[in-house]
Amino acid sequence: MDKPTPVFQVDAFTDRPFAGNPAAVCLLSEPAAPDWMQLVAREMNLSETAFVAPAGDDWALRWFTPTVEVELCGHATLAAAHVLWEERRLAADRPARFHTASGLLQAVRRGAWTDLDFPATPAEACEAPAGLREALGVTPSYVGRSAFDLLVVVEDEAIVRAMAPDLTRLRRLDARGVMVTSAAATPGYDFVSRFFGPAVGVDEDPVTGSAHCCLGPYWGRRLGKTELVAYQASARGGHVQVRLRGERVILSGQAVTVWRGALAAAADRAAAPSTT
Q: How many domains does the chain have?
């Protein structure tokens, strides 16, 4: 960690800069201490920062929000694979194999698109937690819980787009985040969604790949499809193609590098977290 660490910002799930979901990607020469990675993620102040280190012929991958480490992240995985290919750390015709807290994840380049092989995380129907309706300001037609998040279905796309939830109330819910979704009214899409994660330091995530590991199976059952096209209706917006493969979900998206730089602060020079 003595040399500057290459760092990149990549807009994921978009084909143009300043859209989709920005992720920072740090290319490490060796694994780093978690407290240092958390400080770097706080400094980057994006919904997720990915840390990639060699692991034999594969790569170790961890993701941090500004406040916590997370177990699964789609857009930062897409960003990490994009950087490895673009920087020629990995041949364009070779898959990127990542060892993560959610097991082995694989990314494959397909022209301008990247296919991510992720675990499905289907939701089970549940009672709406106390305070959920008041926090969202909408009336759900269905509430479910996945391995990470709450799934909230509403009647139409206009409701999804117009939402202005109470983030303080949402922060009190026992979940990584809340997905709000409906069938799409916009031509060319099957469903739309938004994702709120104030409990993990992300008020609204622009495009949430891992959420589609739950949204895809739900809408696949509802619509009788195994291939779907989704739009996450945040201010930045993003496009996700979803293919259902049993207990796996293939998420497809594009990515654009916005800037390249170097992180000069090595682990032994990082400041301790403030206690104030």
A: 2
Catalytic residues: 48
Under DSSP, the state recorded for 273 is P
pTM comes to 0.93
In a domain, 160, yes or no: yes
Residue 173, SS3 per DSSP: coil
Choose among 187, 204, 207, 188: nearest CA to 196.
204
- Pair 101, 130 in one domain: no
* Residue 220, domain extent: 124-246
Which residues are registered as beta bridge partners of 27? 52
Spell out, as residue ranges, where the chain has pLDDT lower than 50: 1, 269-276
User: Token match 């739950």: residue?
Assistant: 214
DSSP 271: P
DSSP 220: H
Identify the H or E element spanning 145: strand 142-145
Q: What's the maximum distance between 2 C-alpha atoms anywhere in the chain?
A: 54
Residues 241, 128 share a domain? yes
Q: Within this chain, do residues 95 and 163 fall inside the same structural domain, yes or no? A: no
Pairwise CA distance, residues 52 & 118, whole Å: 17
In this structure, the answer to whether residues 158 and 92 fall within a common structural domain is no
C-alpha span between 161 and 156 (Å, rounded): 9
